[in-house]
Recover the amino acids of this structure.
């Protein structure tokens, strides 16, 4: 449900003045800070879920002891004059837990793809095949596992910050849209429940990745 609050004549005049003074770019850089003083809980819930989805994608790119397409599908390859994600120039599969298979759409891109994989920070050494590359996934040392876990926790912190920023912006919209103090408190309470749920999801995602990384 969307909530809105009508503007008084004085407020409209003040906002027009503010708009004029902000033409130099010194005003808010938040696209959500519009003159339409409405609050739609579903919109903000979607923003929270997008933050969790972004975390899921980032975590999938981290190396684990088990081969997965997400480890390399995002690697940028210089082909056709522009950096292109590996997933756009090849099909990636994991035939077993220690191997990734890269089947190229265009065999002429093989040198570029091989170079991109070798230059990635994953420490992988691909082997050329007739139609692509085989990428062995070496065993992870305990030190490597710990370092990857640190990266997972950093990604989790980034997601938490994103969620806090979303909550902060949503609160501003609630304050402008609520027709009464009681309505504001009710909307803020509902928002906090969603924010708490998202924080729990972020923590569980990082914990699950930790377990996956440290599993021998």
């Amino acid at each position: 449900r969307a909530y809105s609050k009508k503007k008084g004549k004085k407020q409209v005049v003040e906002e027009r003045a503010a708009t004029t003074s902000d033409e130099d770019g010194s005003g808010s850089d938040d696209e959500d800070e519009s003159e339409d003083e409405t609050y739609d809980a579903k919109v903000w819930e979607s923003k929270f879920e997008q933050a969790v989805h972004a975390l899921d994608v980032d975590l999938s790119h981290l190396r684990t002891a088990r081969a997965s397409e997400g480890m390399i599908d995002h690697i940028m390859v210089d082909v056709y004059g522009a950096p292109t994600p590996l997933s756009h120039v090849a099909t990636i599969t994991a035939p077993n837990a220690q191997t990734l298979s890269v089947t190229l759409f265009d065999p002429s891109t093989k040198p570029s793809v091989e170079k991109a994989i070798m230059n990635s920070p994953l420490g992988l050494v691909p082997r050329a095949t007739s139609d692509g590359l085989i990428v062995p996934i070496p065993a992870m040392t305990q030190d490597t596992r710990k370092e990857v876990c640190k990266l997972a926790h950093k990604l989790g912190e980034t997601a938490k910050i994103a969620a806090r920023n979303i909550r902060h912006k949503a609160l501003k919209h609630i304050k402008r849209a609520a027709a009464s103090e009681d309505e504001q408190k009710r909307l803020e309470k509902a928002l906090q429940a969603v924010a708490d749920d998202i924080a729990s999801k972020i923590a569980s995602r990082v914990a699950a990745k930790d377990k996956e990384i440290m599993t021998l």
Summary: The first strand starts at residue 2 and ends at 4. The chain has two domains: 37-65+141-216, 66-138. Strands lie at 2-4, 38-40, 76-79, 82-85, 90-96, 99-104, 127-128, 132-136.
